[in-house]
Automatic annotation (TrEMBL):
Entry-linked Pfam families: IF-2B
Lineage of origin: Eukaryota, Metazoa, Spiralia, Lophotrochozoa, Mollusca
Alphabetized PANTHER family for the sequence: METHYLTHIORIBOSE-1-PHOSPHATE ISOMERASE
Ranges in coiled-coil conformation: none
Family: Belongs to the eIF-2B alpha/beta/delta subunits family.
Provenance organism: Tegillarca granosa (Malaysian cockle)
Superkingdom classification of source: Eukaryota
Protein name: Methylthioribose-1-phosphate isomerase
Amino acid sequence: MTLLSIKYVNGTLEILDQLRLPFETEYIRIENTEDGWRVIKMMQVRGAPAIAMVGCLSLAVELLKSDFCSVPELVTFIHEKLSYLVTARPTAVNMSDSAKTFSRKASELSQSPGITVTDLKNR
């Protein structure tokens, strides 16, 4: 039997609760960045690459469910949520690096001529 530590399909994110292993197999559904922050902080997700993936995917899940009035509002939201996620495990280099890359990319894309909120969210 193979266990996936991270399941992401069509905007739905679940993580394998590392604290329950090896005696139990339980997945935790991540609905937003607050959920992502909590599972990172509580060490329910472990390993630098997994922490970064869960952090960024928790933001992706939240972005898909949220509405924004403008591209600048969306970019500010992305920057704030990524900064927040880094505080869950400040020494997790992969999360910090991914947050910087994600933030930079959002800022760059927001400067594209004719970019819309929907375009930016999809990218």
